[in-house]
Amino acid sequence: MTASLRPTTSSLRGLALSAASCLALALLVGSPAHADDKDPVLAKVNGVEIHQSDVNLAEEELAPSLAQMDPAAKQENVLAFLIDMKIVAKAAEDKKIADQADFKKKLDFARNRLLMDNLLAAEGKAALTDEAMKKVYDDAAKQISGEQEVHARHILVQTEDEAKAIKAELDKGADFAKLAKEKSKDPGASDGGDLGFFTKEQMVPEFSKVAFSLEPGKISDPVKTQFGWHIIKVEEKRNRKPPTFEQVKPQIEQYVTRKAQSEYVAKLRETAKVERMDKPAAPAVPAPTTPAPAAKDAAPAKK
What we know:
This protein has helices at residues 19-30, 52-61, 63-66, 71-94, 101-127, 130-144, 160-171, 176-183, 205-211, 245-271; strands spanning 41-45, 48-51, 148-157, 194-198, 223-225, 228-239. It is of the alpha+beta class. A hairpin with a 2-residue loop joins strand 5 and strand 6 (228-239).
C-alpha cells in the first residue's frame, strides 16, 4: 500500500472553462501583439493579425478539449478557432453588441477575473520557494514517521460458523494464503487475502483493533465487521515511512501555492469595506447599564 502526503486545502475556484474565461480570451486575442521572429504572424482576418502567442494563449484556455490531439492538430484547430472568433467578433461589433448592458457586465466580470487570476498567480509563484516546500514536507513527514502500520492477510466469509471452521483448519496447519484463495469472499482473495501495509485509520475500527494487537505470524479468532466475518493473519509490523520529497513534490507545490493565495485574499479582506445588501444588518446590542442603588443603599440626603 503506497503512502501518500497530501495536505488538504480548499480551492479558490474551479478550473472549468467558463463563458467568462472565453470572453477574456476573446479580449486578449483582440489586443495587438508585437511582431518579431519569435512571435510570427500565422494569419490575418480583415487585416487583423493572429500571432503564435495568440494561439499559445488560446491553447492554454482550451486545453481540456484539446487533450487527445497531437501538437499539429492542436495548432490547426486552435488557429481555425481564432480565425472564426475574429470573424464572428467583427460581426458582433457591427451589430453594436459591445454597447449592450449585458455585454458590458460580462466584460467587467472578465476583466476583474483576469486581474484576480494574474495577481493570485504572481502571489502563488512568489511563495513557491524551496524553503517553503521543504518545510511543508518536513512538518508532514514528522507526523507520518513513527506511526505504526501492519502488513496483514485476511479471509472474509459471511457467517460466524464458516469463520470458525476456517480457523479450525488453520489451527491444524492449513496454509492461510491457500485457504484465502479458496474460501474468501474478498476481492483480494486471488492474492491470498493480502492487504499490504495499512494504518489503523485505513481499516474499520473492529478490524484494526485486532490486527494491531496481534504479533507477526499470529492468526486471530473470527472478527465481525460490517462486511462479514474475518480471520486475520499479521505478516509484519513496522513504523510507517514517509514518501520521498520528489514523490510528493507536485502536491506540495499545489498546497504552498493555494495556501499563499488564500492567505493573501484573507489579508485583503481585512482592509476591504464590504457591505452586504442582501442580508439585514445585525441588530445593535445596547450597552449594559449600571442599575441604580437600592433605597436602603442610597446616600442620605443633606439636611
